[in-house]
Specification:
Blueprint (H helix, E strand, L loop, with lengths): L1 E5 L10 E2 L5 E8 L2 E5 L2 E5 L4 E4 L6 E5 L5 E8 L4 H4 L11 E3 H5 L1 H12 L3 H16 L6 H12 L6 H8 L3 H11 L4 H18 L4 H11 L3 H12 L3 H5 L4 H4 L5
């Protein structure tokens, strides 16, 4: 859970980039709205609205709706947590930003109204936390899915689907169906996002070139394989992106 505030739009030369990190996002725009571009789609979230961002596997460009003071609360859920909190079709929200009331109805409408009436930021955070705790009371864990998610996470995205088949005793088709149900995408795609995440964490933290080269060859077959992944998830080359990094493009990769 974090809060992002700005006095207005970012400078034109800075990259307004959110790189996929395999997490879902619950967003409250409590001051001003935001405009996000995911691929060729544009999503607008107005002031005092709640939205859920599904699993994203392409770069997102984002900026305040108006060139004015902006305040946004972002709560992120990793692949183990999201399905426990929101009971919906996750394939329908993949690469989408959807207003929460459109997904879960009256509960979100009521929460949205309470958040708009709460003047203090800490009260808004408390309301959101209480709502999520109530959502968790309905959670039913899925042990096979949880096991696979942990294997992918702990291997930094290097475990294969064939290995997951062997370890769980379930077919790749069954695993893909289970992942689609709880995540909105298959285990292979998640592994690719997690694998890139390891590199991007080091890259965005300013790791030296030798360390980055070691990361590349540990996670990718060769440099061209890595560059394809970099272009897919950032929409840019490493050199171009390094010259336009800012807090917005690194925030969801730091604790």
């Amino acid at each position: 859970m974090w809060v992002f505030e700005s006095s207005g739009r970012l400078p034109a030369m800075e990259r307004k980039l959110i790189v996929p990190n395999a997490n879902f996002k619950l967003t409250l725009t409590y001051r001003n709205g935001i405009e996000a571009r995911v691929g060729d789609k544009i999503f607008i979230q107005s002031e005092n609205k709640l939205s859920l961002t599904g699993l994203i596997d392409s770069p997102v460009l984002i900026d305040p709706q108006e060139d004015a003071q902006t305040g946004t609360i972002i709560i992120e859920f990793n692949p183990l947590g999201a399905y426990r909190l929101f009971h919906l079709s996750y394939t329908e929200v993949k690469n989408q930003i959807v207003e929460l009331p459109d997904l879960i109805g009256n509960r979100a409408e009521e929460l949205q109204s309470q958040l708009a009436e709460a003047s203090a930021l800490n009260l808004k955070l408390q309301l959101l936390q209480n709502f999520l705790i109530k959502q968790l009371e309905k959670a039913t864990p899925d042990p096979i899915y949880d096991y696979c998610i942990n294997r992918i996470s702990y291997s930094n995205g290097l475990v294969s689907v064939a290995q997951l088949e062997k370890e769980t005793g379930y077919s790749s088709r069954w695993l893909h169906t289970k992942f689609s149900e709880h995540l909105g995408t298959g285990p292979k795609n998640l592994s690719e996002i997690i694998r890139f995440k390891q590199f991007y964490q080091a890259f965005s933290a300013g790791a030296n070139s030798q360390s980055l080269k070691e990361q590349i060859y540990h996670h990718y077959h060769d440099q061209s394989h890595f560059l394809r992944a970099f272009k897919r998830f950032t929409g840019s080359t490493p050199t171009d992106l390094q010259n336009s990094m800012n807090e917005l493009s690194t925030k969801n990769f730091t604790s």
